[in-house]
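Bit of a strange request maybe. I'm writing a small parser for C-alpha cell strings and I need a real example to test against, not something I typed by hand. Could someone generate the C-alpha cells for this chain?
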Amino acid sequence: MDFIYIEDKLPFSESVRNDFTGELSSKELSIFGKTIYAESGIFYPFLYQNQLQIGILGGYRYNDLTRTIFRCEQCQEQELYQFENLTYVKPFIKYKFSARFSLQIAYSHYFNEMGFNNSIDLQVTFVKF
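Reply from user aminoacidic:
Good idea to test on real output. This should exercise your parser:
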C-alpha cells in the first residue's frame, strides 16, 4: 500500500450539485491514482541468521494520477502527466525480527525533470509467503 503526499501547486474548487438534495456546494479537487512498480537489486546480510540487510534497488515506477473530486461523475478531471514514468535508485536497510515480521526503511531518488524528487519509505512486513 502506498501513501503518496503531493503538494498541489494549483489547487482549485468546483461547484457540485448533490443528486439527492439538489443543493449546490463548492468542493476542492484532490489528487487520486494508482502506482505500479518493478524493481531489482542486491543486498548484503549481517548478523545472526541474516537479521540485518543493507542493499540497493533500481526500479521503474508507473503512476496514473488525476486531479478530480472523489465520486463525482460530471466533474472536471485533469490528468497529471508529469508523474507518469519514473526510474529511481533506492538504498535500504532492513531488519528481520522473525521469519514473519520485518521492518525496512529506504530512500528513493527519482531520475526525472518533473514530478517526484525523492521519498523516504517505511515498509512493514507481517507475513511472508
